[in-house]
Structures are given as structure tokens and as C-alpha cells.
Amino acid sequence: LISVMVFCAGINVGIERFAYRRLRRAPKLAPLITAVGVSFMIQFVGLRWNGSGQKTWNSVLPSGNAMLGSVKLPYTTIISFAVTIPILIALSFIVTKTRQGKAMRATAQDQDASRLMGINVNRTIAFTFALGGALAGVAGLLFQQTRGLTSYNLGYQLGLIAFTSAVLGGIGNLQGAVLGAILIGLIQ
Questions:
Q1: How far apart are CA 129 and CA 139, in angstroms?
Q2: How many other CB atoms are there within 10 angstroms of residue 180's CB atom?
Q3: Which of 47, 85, 100, 166 could form a disulfide with 152 if both were Cys (CB 3.0 to 4.6 A apart)?
Q4: How far apart are CA 165 and CA 169, in angstroms?
Q5: pLDDT tens digits for range 105-142
Q6: CA-closest candidate to residue 43, choices 152, 116, 161
């Protein structure tokens, strides 16, 4: 899990450095087009690594179910919650209580004012991309371990679900986004 988090954080920081940093002051359409291009590049890498079809993988997580009264709860679901809850608590702490979290929130509101207040905007945005990449790595690994499959184009569907969860829970509300994801999962 840690190595996946570091690997994905590194990829995301690299994407920020080489694709987005130069577009900070560009019109809003340029980063959007770049995001589509980066998405295609990542899909191509996934296609080369995974192949065009779904691949099944053995899980290292225990199989079976725990009984909670008359409700069957798969061990993989329990483990997913056991991983997600501490990460959500840590992320909430980072964003709301740390100096770097305050810098992230300030930079999101106004980059120029943040620079005037002494915040290194490039480092703050790179840190935010690193956090996002690490969390995406956790999500991808948990998905692969619970579903037992990978596909080069899963990011598209899962990205739409993640975006919908964030909107449903309230943009900028970490706990709301997780509750939105749980609600979407229950509906599915």
C-alpha cells in the first residue's frame, strides 16, 4: 500500500510539473484540454501494461464473510473501511489543521494573494497533486484487491463515480465526498 501510494504520488507530481505548471496563467480551456490529453496518455500506458481486455488477479485479502446479525459483510469491505477511515482522518487533519493544509486552501482561493502572503504556490500545488496521487493509488489498490480485476479504461468510469461522489457530498467536503461514495456504492 505504501509503495503504491509513493509511486502514484510521484506520477501525479510529474504530471503536474510537466503538463500543468506552465498552464497556471493560461485560459481555462488549456488545462482542460491538457487533462484530456494526459488521460489518453495514462490510458495508453495502462493498455500497454494491462492489455486490451480485463485481467484477473488473485487477492491477498482474506476471502469470506463476517456475519453481522443476518447481514453478510465481506472481509474485503471491512478491510476497505479499515483503510479508508484512518486515511480520511489523516487527510482531514492535514487539510484543516496543518500549515500546508492552510496553504492549500489559500492557494485554491487566490494564488496571487497566496504568493503575497509568502506561500510557495508551486510547492503547494505539487503537494496537493502528490496527495491526490497517493489517494488514487490507495483507491486503485483497494479496487483491484476487492474486485480482483484490472482494465486499462477503468479510470474513466471510476473517475466519473468519484466526481459524482464529490458533487453529491459537497465540493470541498472530504467527509461528504466519502459519504457520497458510500451512497453511490449502496445504490449500485
A1: 15
A2: 20
A3: 47
A4: 6
A5: 999 999 999 999 999 999 999 999 999 999 999 999 99
A6: 152
pLDDT number for residue 1: 93
Cell output for 169: 457530498
Across the chain, which distance is largest between two alpha carbons, in Å? 59
Q: What is the dihedral of CA 95, 99, 102, 103, to 10 degrees?
A: -110
DSSP letters, 93-146, are HHHHHSHHHHHHHHHHH-HHHHHHTT--HHHHHHHHHHHHHHHHHHHHHHHHHH
Q: Is 178 helix (H, G, I), strand (E, B) or coil?
A: helix
Taking the C-alpha atoms of residue 167 and residue 172, their distance in angstroms, rounded to an integer, is: 9
Q: For residue 120, what pLDDT is reported?
A: 96
Q: 35: which 3 cell numbers?
A: 487533462
Give the H/E segment covering residue 164: helix 154-169
The predicted structure's pLDDT at residue 68: 86
Cell numbers standing for residue 146: 476487492
Q: What is the pTM of this model?
A: 0.85
Mean of the per-residue pLDDT values for the chain? Answer: 90
Q: Phi and psi of 73, rounded to 5°?
A: -120, 115
pLDDT value at residue 62: 87
> Which residue numbers in the chain have pLDDT < 50?
none
C-alpha cell at 120: 510557495
